[in-house]
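EI: anyone free to look at a 344-residue chain?
SC: sure, send it
EI:
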Amino acid sequence: MFEAALPPDRAEHVRAPGAPGSALTPSDERFERITRLAARFLRMPMARVSLVDSRLLGFTADDDARATGTASVRSFCGSLVSGDDTSVVPDTLDDPRLREHPLVTGAPFIRSCAGHPLRMVDGSKVGTLCVMDTRPRRLREADLETLRFLAGWVQDELQMQVLNEGRAALIAERDELRRRTLLDPLTSAWNRDAVLEVLERELARSARDGSPLSIIMADVDHFKDVNDSFGHPTGDRVLLGVVANLRAAVRPYDAVGRFGGEEFLAVLPRCDARAALTIAERMRGRVEAERFETASGVVRATLSLGVATISRTPGADAPGLIEAADRALYRAKADGRNRVAIAA
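SC: here you go
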């Protein structure tokens, strides 16, 4: 019974995160070009890049060999290249490692082959570049130099793939960390710094193009009573529900942030006073209609909201706009809560 020989560090490598070639497919043009060159320069009908993570890439000029299973070719290449340097087999029937291999005893009846191991910078063996023929062959030293050169090219491509994948992972990790620093940990709305950053950006855009900009300050009425009567876990559940309703009330490109404990700021670019009033009323109505299911039972909440708008106002700044919305908010509270007031 033939048993496939694989690189000794295969298992460790395959388990390693970010294994080389994880984004490669059998149709990857980079490797097909290299294996076509290997087949042409070495005058072999078959050439393969076999990776230890089960991928098989390359060129086959023979239909029987093209239909050969990936596992069979991988085991053949793994058996051929078990050392650190180029392996050459002029006649597979004379080689105890390969003479009983299914690709030798059956289609495509490989009779000669050569292979060079593929290694990463850390020395781990990640695959093999193999060339194969259906007749006995002795390769010249110049042919072996060509094989080593092409194997080095494959290694460079694999290394670049790893670097690109690593760079993409680092960028994604950086972006995720950046995103987390901008989110409120409880509600996942923008935190105070983030929503103020959005406001500054939209103020700059409004100053450039003269488009209107509105903000809404919203405060949960009598929220302290909710915490005192039902406990902070229930209060947290109410805040989560309030944020869900605020998000549902605004447009997709508006920003909602947690400005304080139970106070929220919505930034509405390209939104005039009338449209902002409509959105604020939608926020108020959604929260008033909500029944928050909590461990302590059903809890209801209402909002008081203040709206402020700028339009072609030179020199407008974030503190001034927030102060105007805050004054409107407190007027809504003074007038009985659960209502919307518009800044003068």
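EI: The domain at 192-342 is CATH 3.30.70.270 (Alpha-Beta Plaits).
SC: 👍
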